[in-house]
Write a structure and sequence with these properties.
- The structure is a single chain.
- By secondary structure, the chain is mainly α.
- About 35% of the residues lie in helices and about 5% in strands.
- Strand 1 and strand 2 form a beta hairpin.
- It is globular and about 40 Å long.
- Bound molecules: iron/sulfur cluster.
- The site of iron/sulfur cluster (SF4) has 12 residues, from helix 2.
Length: about 80
């Protein structure tokens, strides 16, 4: 059986998952500027996730979160202290 898991993929890179992608956009739109990280910090966080062995199918294996959602909040932290 083929392994369809995508190590190092984020949601925007994967086909399907439209419900989660929609949830991500909704979460972004509902957060106030004070709650949300800057675009630069967000991209830096996601870049660290993409180079992390704990990323699988856009999900962090350490905390079970979709990293694109977790990384949005300024107060959120990486469970492995990478960001
Ligand atoms: S451990 Fe940290 S850097 Fe790695 S995938 Fe999870 S949130 Fe991202």
């Amino acid at each position: 059986m083929a392994d369809n898991s995508c190590k190092r993929c984020l949601l925007y890179e994967m086909a399907g998952n439209e419900d989660v992608k929609s949830q991500l956009e909704k979460t972004k739109s509902l957060m106030s500027p004070g709650e949300k990280v800057s675009d630069e910090k967000y991209e830096k966080r996601l870049s660290q996730c993409k180079n992390c062995d704990s990323l699988l199918n856009a999900t962090c294996l350490k905390c079970g979160c979709y990293v694109e959602i977790r990384a949005l909040a300024d107060g959120a932290r990486c469970p492995s202290k990478k960001w």
